[in-house]
Amino acid sequence: YQVPNWSGDWFRVSDRGEMEVTPGPGLHAPLRAIVDEIVERGESLPVILRFPQVLAGRVKHLNEAFQNAITEYGYGNHYQGVFPIKVNQRRVVVESLAAAGYDYAHGLEAGSKAELALCLAQRMHPDALLCCNGFKDDGFIKLALWGRTLGKNVVITIEKFSELDRILKQARALGVKPAIGVRFKLHARGSGQWEESGGDQAKFGLNAYELLRVVERLREEDMLDSLVMLHTHIGSQITDIRRVKVAVREATQTYAGMIAAGAQLKYLNVGGGLGVDYDGSKTTFYASMNYTVREYAADIVYTIQEVCKAREVPEPVIISESGRALTAHHAVLIMPVVDVTGPTRDLEDLAPASEDSHQIVKDMEDVLEKITLRNYRESYNDAVGDKQTLHNLFDLGYVTLSDRARGEALFNAILRRIAKLIQNEKYVPDELEDLQKVLADKFICNFSLFQSLPDNWAIQALFPIVPLDRLNEQPTRQATIVDITCDSDGKIDKFIDLRDVKSTLPLHEPGDRPYYLGTFLMGAYQDVLGSAHNLFGKVSEAHVTVRPGGKFHIDLFVRGQKARRMIESMGYEEPMLRDAIEDQADDAIKQGILTAGQENELLDDYGEELLGYTYLEYEEG
Ligand code: PLP
Questions:
Q1: Whole-prediction pTM value?
Q2: Quick one: three-class SS letters along 397-412?
């Protein structure tokens, strides 16, 4: 599962073979024990475990990385982070980050009116920035300006030129002096899946000509001191540090150019993009990154300083809008395995071929018995051909259902035997490369991919998936994971690997004890992009603090969305539904297919389900 490669300081495998969260020096707690306590309290799974200490640790890590680089290079200004709340607007996340970031004057970034309303309510360090990005109407601008009257360091970033006049108009009307940022379209691009966010064709930002027009326009208004920030962003999850350096160099040259044109900028905002090493490969692969947080900070500080020295301009306050890197680690989705299906599950008790069995079944039995390392390729081709013939004969009525069952089981048994024979072979023929995948079991897990890991479905994002315990026991199954939605896309069949992407995950045979899988590094974007496919709603969450001595405390348990909430979000009303059921029950009583006693029971059960969790509710344990 490559745990040491992707877990940083935050998770580890204990000597007892259990996944542990390790949010600080001397602090560790097994995830299995946390889940067991949740279940003992009578709560249902799935659940997301959130660790505010991990969030605080990430804030510290990022800020210290910049502070250390600033000290090392003797940089003449400081760093201030800004958390873009679109990455995760959950209350515990925003409040934990705001609290952990207070001493670092770590601020927030809002990209919409609703996000701004939420950010304004947070208590922040007076110097902490509240950056307003995204397209803005007058209401958005007004709210941002009111924020300045609350003593907050609100900066409104212009994403397109026409926003400038609207800001000036609203500021005049309210009598508030605005602080303005301007987003520049760098020609530099990021790397990885969000490469298109940068470059000339980027959705947001002004070009060089428009940038100079902003300076001119503010000079005309005698408001040059309102232009405080230059903002750039070349996309999320930048995999290659060289792209960061190139972009920061261009951004700093632009900053210097604006200073030369008369701007009095204070802040240089390098945007988001700091990556997360989801697969632990430390490469430029899209699920990885070829640098550390320390290198990221050092390269940004060094590059800005170098350009500023050469251009003889003051070194600006450095801002980054890192979101993914702050939040990914803090959350783990716990998915109970509720069933296993697949070709290795064929009933061993199927009767052997008898005298009456069809010849094709007898042939397949023969193939199975005679497989060797010398003839496995031929056996494979025979089996594929026989299976096809079996199905054709079945369609024509010449093969019985039980012969078909026996034939299909034999086919799977042949593949299993071949897979075992060739598992250590260096050369595997092309046609057999997918054997593992074909033979993989399907571990059915109680969760919805669309609600909890939407990026896996939408953009093939990879997340480390690890059983919570039994990690000192050799897994015996190769598996893919399927969710409980009625959608065949609701599956995970790509897993992290150091060299490539794996199509199966080794897992243990579930025993009498419930078997839980944890999906790690899912705290960025997943919570907020999730959708209610099949009306599976928000997952329950436990906010957990780890205490010394391997202990933990569940500070808060927030139950997931009830069925009623999901149904109501589609425009229905609960009383309407209950009335409709009652009317139909009354009719059924009249027709004599339901008794009055049964009606009460039915209505009770119906009401209970409306108030229930949308996921499968089993007695765990
Ligand atoms: N800032 C802006 C303007 C963004 O568009 C984004 C996301 O793409 C971010 C910051 C956050 O980026 P990340 O999560 O990669 O840190």
A1: 0.93
A2: CCCCHHHHHHHHHHHH
